[in-house]
Predict the structure.
Amino acid sequence: MRIDLNSDLGEGFGPWRMGDDTAMLDIVTSANVAAGGHASDPETMFAALQTAASRGVVVGAHPGYADREGFGRRVIPMSPAEIGRMVVAQTGALAALAQLAGTEVRYVKPHGALGNLAAADAQVADAIAAAVGALSPRLAILAISGTALEQAARGRGIAVFSEIFADRAYLPNGQLVPRSREGAVLHDPAAIADRLLAFLDSGLMPAIDGAPVRLAAQSICVHSDTPGAVAIARDLRERLTAAGVHIAPFL
């Protein structure tokens, strides 16, 4: 069995730092780098891209609502067309910096509230897929497993890969439990690894308030801003490897 580990990185801004990018880039195989919307700036992006390149980590763009105060976790009223242009602007900026850093943006993964909206809203999902396809036929999409964004990408002939979340709880419909609810974010490294090993064996993800939901995934995400993220990611990689799972990029 083969699986990718990814994390959302480059999410600082100026002198402010979020998470430990350097430590995470020693563990993960794909990096979703913030593209200046919910977080980051040119220097923060460049540093994350350069470190990823030096580690051989595959890079993706992580566009989100331009809402640093809310860290991109609030929905900003925008039309689907406006969202598409925002995704192109952020992804294009990151792609240009990636050239300077000696790497390449290979995929797009929407962040936070934008990612959750694209998972549920077919019009938003199609606008993002159309924008990514127009920007470059070489770009893939990394989508929350079993969602509208997956369907939109497939409908437009865009390579799409599915992810599950190590540190987030699920609803029976396959959506993530809102962060406002108790138990939405998971913290125990051993319990997280146990849950994911069981998922890889069965394809069933435990859900709050309901039966397990069947999902498919080529990648597992550990959010870098979750407390103890590095320990969670390191323990998960060690446990997966010990179980015979090959850790490798989905691209």
User: Anything to note?
Assistant: The chain has a mean pLDDT of 96. The first strand starts at residue 2 and ends at 9.
